[in-house]
Amino acid sequence: MDVAPTITKLGPCDVRQRGILGLRNARFSPGAKANAKLADGRGRKAEGYFQGSDMHVIYSDHHKTHTTNVATIDGVPFVSRELPARAEVILLAVREAGLGPITAPVDHGLAPVLAVHDPAYVSHLKTVYQETSRRCGCPIPVLVGTGVTLERAPEPPAGFFARRLYYTYDYEDPIFEGTWEAAYWSAQCALTAADVVRGGERAAYAVCRPPGHHAMVDQYGGFCYLNNVAIAARSLQAEGPVAILDIDYHHGNGTQAIFYADPQVFYGSLHADPGVDYPFFWGRASERGAGPGWGTNLNVPLPIGTGDAAYLEAFEVVLQAIQAFGPQYLLVSLGLDAAAGDPIGKFHLTRAAFVTLGRRIAALGLPTVLVQEGGYNLDTLGDYVTAVLSAFP
């Protein structure tokens, strides 16, 4: 699907122990419900829902340069669930729902990316495709044949092919000629959404592809190269404490690692038990943070097959922890792979559950940046995204 959206340009525009320990048995009590959603006959929200009338959506077609849909490796078609069509079905659904303006991202340059990621790692992402192709004598995608390396030397190795292993912990994340371009503009989408909310809007949604929450400071994995939500969160930290809510089926190990010792960023995640599903080595309930950031990390691993009732009960625990933290901004890693029928996820959430998730998040009353992560069922992805977004102005 190749949708040509109408896009307008924007101008540049402690918790520690308090309130979080013992929240396993807590229950979330939301404040007064927002006014009922009203819509006019053209599908645009009418007055009376929240102050303001639109969900600002940030989208860039640069994502299409990460060509997971047409690539071959050693003459064999590369098969991936992380496809350009994901962003396009979301875009189509957002437009049809009339949620608000679709805006191209502002280019913030590399500075906010380098505020999260190691400069040598960023340089590697920018140049590894070209260098690999030069050394091999032909254009060739970068795909390393190895898995997780938990023990790493403090400095990258001198050898080029060894560095290719050093900067990833996964084996199914190719780097194509346009992967850096797509990842760069994905991060710019998240940064622009943060700008919109910083400027006074209630919420903004970044259609980020590739996704980002598995990307570490200096390693890529899990379809993720730059950590979009972490980059946006870091850009908002100067304004006050920030909370990140991750509802992707998989634990956001990259986001957790980036802020693990940071007392000004709370990270809360509901996800598949890492004992049985990706990312396996991160995401346990015992991981609470480190040093000054101890207590600002909350993981709620859930069993395979989790449905609406159990998920929503656990979700309320995380929301209460966020309230106790008292952030100035909320960022949501919006993964939809917890949905029933997702080809990668193994939870069974219905559309009704995503409607409830959106309402619960919106009821927090916080300026909110929603950043797209996973979700791989192309038949339902767009609809489930709008189910969440429709709870916001």
Descriptive report:
This protein is of the alpha/beta class and 393 residues long. It has one domain (8-118, 179-389): Histone deacetylase domain (Arginase, Chain A, 3-Layer(aba) Sandwich), CATH 3.40.800.20. Helices cover 30% and strands 12% of the residues. The protein has 10 helices and 11 strands. The chain has helices at residues 84-97, 111-114, 119-136, 160-166, 179-198, 228-236, 253-259, 308-325, 351-363, 381-389, and strands at 8-9, 56-58, 72-73, 76-77, 102-104, 203-206, 242-246, 265-272, 297-302, 329-334, 368-372. The strands form 2 sheets. It has a 9-stranded parallel beta sheet, with helices on both faces. The longest helix has 20 residues, at 179-198. The radius of gyration is 20 Å and the shape is globular. Mean pLDDT is 84; it is low at 1-53.
Query: What is the CATH C level class, in words?
Result: Alpha Beta
Largest sheet: 9 strands, parallel
Q: How many E-type strands? A: 11
- Supply the CATH architecture: 3-Layer(aba) Sandwich
Annotated CATH topology: Arginase, Chain A
Summed up, the helix count is 10
Mean pLDDT: 84
Strand content: 5-15%
User: Cα distance, first to last residue?
Assistant: 28 Å
**What count of domains describes the coordinates?**
1
Contiguous uncertain segments of 5+ residues? 1-53
What's the gyration radius in Å?
20 Å
The geometry reads as: globular
Strand neighbour order, sheet with most strands: 1-5-2-6-11-10-7-8-9
Mind telling me the CATH superfamily name?
Answer: Histone deacetylase domain
- Write the H/E string, N to C: EEEEHEHHHHEHEHEEHEHEH
- Structural class, from secondary structure content? alpha/beta
Helix content: 25-40%
